[in-house]
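Here comes a specimen:
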Amino acid sequence: MKQLKLKRLFSVLMAFILIVGFIPKADAAAKELKVHFIDVGQGDAILIQSPNGKNMLVDGGPKSAGKHVVDFLKAKGVKKLDYVVATHPDADHIGGLIEVLNTFNVSSFVDSGYVHTSQTYYELLTLIDKKNIKFSVAEELDKIALDPNMIIRVLYTDENAKDSNDASIVLKATYNKVSFLLMGDADTAIEDYIRDKYDVSATVLKNGHHGSNTSSSAAFISNVKPKVAVLSYGKNNSYGHPNAAIEARLKNVGAKTYKTAVDCDITVTTDGVKHSVSNSCGKTVAKPAPPAKPAPKPVTKPAPVTQTNFKNCTELRKVYPKGVSKDHPAYQPKMDRDKDGWACER
């Protein structure tokens, strides 16, 4: 009886498959999000490749890095950019975008709105206008619709800021259980502002202002509690970035720190649950120090002359065990009994 029932059920299922043309399959593996922190020297450039295959570039480094950014995007299969975000108009964040916009089609450009009078910023805006790229100024709590499976939200921006760094667009990108907090050049005051208003906890933190001590306060890092921290800066830069205290704070919360000046291009890959980090050049292995040379033995200098008159040879030898020569201040003819020019020799 049970066998007959099973056969009937199987027949019904096969009929359904033939009619609908559908064969149930196991759930497909979750698609991956890739976030690349591009080594542009002293500056920032971040490529976000969403699970649905769209591309978003956050900053482009200085002009000198433009070709590297373009080559990197091409190597990652980028044909067009759905969004470009300029966190603020400093040259080390927007200079490379000029070559990017001259190379790729860009659908939307998001700007901080902070008015900067530099030639680089003027050139960039002229190019956006010439190419008729959709332009918008970010506002706090804006969402960037890159992928329906992701939430990318603006946590801070200020077009009326007192300086360009304070205008920085701060972004939080979340894919299921994995999140990225991108701080631009935001300082500690902005950090305090957003941690009081929003959930700033994140799996990956791109530290503000290249690891400068104007950003990444101990309180902020304790709130973020990143598993991975990225410091984007140029090797041997004149600013002293990153500050050693920042690296210590990150270590204290258990974050694994990566640096573009050491690790080159850094990529975080995630399926929304787990994440992994890779880099293009590996960490520099310190060469073993050469064996220390033995310290030279100290040269014993003769004691300074402190006494020149002695009652007899016995007293003299207490100070000068081998006696003294004729030209020595302590020489006395009466003690040179053999008249050989040396007094009180043994």
About this structure: Residues 1-6, 19-28, 283-290 have pLDDT under 50 and may be disordered. The chain is about 25% helix and 20% strand.
